[in-house]
Amino acid sequence: ALHPRYSCFVTPRDQATREYVAAVHQLTRRLDRDPYTDTRWGILTGFDAANALAIAKHDKPLVIRRVASGTELALEMCQEGLWYDELVKNKLVRRDKGGEVRELKGPDDTTSALVDSLNEYQPDLFVTSGHATERGWQIGFTYRNGFFRSRAGQLFGEDTKRKTYAVESPNAKVYLPIGNCLMGHIDGPDAMALAWMNDAGVKQMMGYTVPTWFGYGGWGVLDYFVEQPGRYTLTDAFFANHHALIHSIETKSGNQRGMEFDRDVVAFYGDPGWSARMADARCAYNQTLTNEGDTWTLSVTPNRGNDSFKPVNTNGAQRGWRPVVQWLPFRVQDIEVVEGQEHAPVVADDFVLVPNPREFDFSRKFKVVFRARPVKESAADSAGAGE
Fold it and tell me: Smallest Cα–Cα separation from 69: which of 81, 86, 79, 83?
């Protein structure tokens, strides 16, 4: 059966609706009998065909060394970056390459500064949160500030005095509006998502297609991507977080109403096979996967003592406590867990998920051993068929 590792859903902008996003979520969980997403997918669209084609043709892997954000980030996990606080006026936090994280004083209105962070600083990753609609992002959450707005595929800032600043940031980047309402909802040619992809060099992004109130599906991408630097591509981090969400639903842990709300409402745009990855840094724990024949071992080693499995950063909603997720190099079958059952692992055909131990007993090994045989894949499966 056709079971590609990656699936790219190519669609014009007027068909990339929130209903389309939900349908893709639901379809890609039905390729086999388990409840998890069965292929790592992306929706390839753009302001126009030329924009979508440019995204599709961009194949140079991105290593994220420079980050800019309109909300708090774990800069200690980044090589360099800066963020302006959406909650505290004048708060700017910066880390220069090779330096320490420093708190500085920012401007009252950060609109032009954030536009400059895109145009001049040229980050590889841009992150936002706070109030938003399909037409604009409200930069300040608890205080008066400016906006980012979109019109006909163009992105610009508008400060509190109604002065505008054009975004001219063509360098390839990824965009995570992890806490914004509606930033992933394409409802017409003026949609913010289209402007980010068309006018700001964004090759991959995720975003809510609805007003967000819970946040697991958005904020959790930071837990896997930024806060486990180098471990996952953005595609893999997005779906690791979605697997964690589905696991919570299946085990009836956490806020079930919230998990079910977030399940089908976060879009992933771009070519899912393209690689965007944080520059390597020391993670809170190491995880290694080895095999001898059909016997596989996932070993997890804490690096921060009792803090190894705690949240790295708590800004936002539903942060931290994510399960360990390990992708397998190919699909497997006839799975049998032979060691580590006490960790309640889920071994699926292409990943292993182990619930976060929270309080780790250092007298025990954090290890899961299982047997599994490879699934014989077709050429389409191994290459990643487009849908």
Answer: 83
